[in-house]
Amino acid sequence: MQLQIQLRSLILAAMALLALPGGLARSDDLDQPEALSKSCPKGVLFKEIKSGIVVTVIRQGQGKAVFTQDKHRLQAATAVEILTKEGEHGFIYGPMRSYMFAVDPDVVKDFEWRPAETEYHAFYTLRDDDGNEALLNFVDIGCAP
């Protein structure tokens, strides 16, 4: 019984370390439930895992979109507006954060938008047009200064 409890604790600790970006805790205040999601007036910084490129998510949206050959089948969708360091704007959207696609602004113009929020463990995976290959993986690194 004691071994089982120790093993469970070890597994939970390993899972927590593997789930954290870079294996490091971000901030003590994130341990508080009310701090798990926080509005960021200047946007949220997201860092691409391999390249280290940092972009700012200005706002987040929800709406309906088509992701299949059946153009009449609308699905729930999430979207974000991104600003690069060079000042370029872009949009990505998808049925979930792990399946996001680059899109023109007119595709998401009818979405309901809100200011960007930083969230513990938030990420976005940008995929190729077919959705088969992950091109970029962005992780939330906190509010923009």
Task: Describe this entry's structure for a reader.
The structure is a single chain. The chain is mostly beta strands and 145 residues long. It has one domain. Helix content is 12%, strand content 46%. The protein contains 1 helix and 10 strands, in the order αββββββββββ. The strands form 2 sheets. Strands 2, 3, 4, 5, 6, 7, 9 and 10 form an 8-stranded antiparallel sheet that branches. The longest helix has 18 residues, at 2-19. The termini are far apart. The relative contact order is 0.21. Mean pLDDT is 81; it is low at 1-34.
Total of helices: 1
**First CA to last CA: what distance?**
49 Å
Please write the string of helix (H) and strand (E) elements: HEEEEEEEEEE
On the 0-100 scale, what is the average pLDDT? 81
Report strand %: over 45%
**Number of structurally distinct domains:** 1
Percent of residues in helical segments? 10-25%
Largest sheet: 8 strands, antiparallel
Q: Helix/strand-derived class?
A: mainly beta
| Rg result | 17 Å
Q: How would you describe the shape?
A: globular
Instruction: Give start-end ranges of low-pLDDT stretches.
Output: 1-34
Q: How many beta-strand segments?
A: 10
Structural topology:
Blueprint: H1 2-19, E1 37-39, E2 44-48, E3 54-66, E4 74-83, E5 89-96, E6 99-103, E7 112-115, E8 117-119, E9 123-127, E10 134-143
Antiparallel strand pairs: 1-8, 2-3, 2-10, 3-4, 3-7, 4-5, 5-6, 9-10
